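Sorry to interrupt, but I need a hand with the structure work. It will help me judge whether the discrete encoding reads sensibly. Write everything out right here, beneath this request:
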Amino acid sequence: MTTTAYTGRATNWTMVAVSGLLLVPLIGLASSDVDRAFVLVVGLALLGVLAEVVTASDVRVACGTQGVSVHWGALGWPRASYPLDRIEDVSVVQVPWWAVSFGFWWTPWRTVCTVRSGPALRLRLRNGRRVTITVPDPAAAAAALRSVS
């Protein structure tokens, strides 16, 4: 039986608003009568902004007996799962403004899924990997994971 002890969704509305404001001039430039190469570059920039908004504007997290499930963006993709038996320790850490990844970042040693600065949930996996996730109430998420493990 699967029981969810904590769910949360963190959205970076500032990034959504700024990205939306960037779309206006890009759409205007793409529809203007200019060189095709320039229109191609603007179109690629437009796709990049849209991809950022769709995949990196928010993080949804569920913690419980199944472990931790993370879904990014409006479409819930990419997604990741961290079963309880792979989690060594959970803690709450402070993410400074300069370390916010605005989406999903993966390296061989860590995974970061943050959309804002401030407190975040940190998982230390049994293989030594660290996973940092923005959640609305990281203390409650950590307590929920401790209670089911």
Summary: The chain has a mean pLDDT of 84. The two ends are 14 Å apart (CA to CA). The chain has two domains: 4-10+58-148, 12-54.
